[in-house]
Backbone:
């Protein structure tokens, strides 16, 4: 019985260590729309949004505070399958630079359609500690 508890303790501590060592990467998706999240300066925030560029729609970053959250590179798109017309996921990466609050807002739209409201929006407030 003592050996069982020792193994259980090692498993719990290993899981806690792996959770703590996630490299400071925080991931958010559309299910978190409108929420507030906290990150530490130096950590990475990954935003994943479902979309389908074959329809002409794409996610566009509409609002951000570059002094607090800096976009790291260009967004990436990965299709869910090899089928023509299939949807996929847009991925954006941001680095938290300094303490403060930044609002990230994305619009899902056709960039050539002027004076047309986006079909979807995604907004998240990021508090950098």
Residues:
């Amino acid at each position: 019985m003592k050996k069982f508890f020792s193994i259980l303790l090692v498993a719990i501590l290993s899981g806690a260590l792996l959770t703590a060592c996630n490299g400071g990467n925080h991931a958010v998706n559309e299910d978190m729309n409108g929420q507030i999240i906290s990150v530490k300066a130096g950590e990475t925030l990954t935003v994943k949004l479902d979309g389908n560029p074959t329809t002409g729609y794409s996610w566009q970053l509409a609002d951000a505070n570059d002094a607090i959250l800096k976009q790291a590179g260009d967004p990436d798109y990965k299709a869910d399958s090899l089928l023509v017309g299939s949807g996929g996921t847009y991925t954006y990466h941001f680095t938290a630079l300094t303490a403060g609050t930044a609002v990230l807002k994305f619009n899902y739209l056709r960039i050539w359609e002027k004076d047309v409201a986006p079909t979807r929006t995604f907004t998240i407030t990021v508090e950098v500690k």
About this structure: Residues 2-20 form the longest helix (19 residues). The chain has one domain: 23-128. Confidence is low (pLDDT under 50) at residues 4-22.
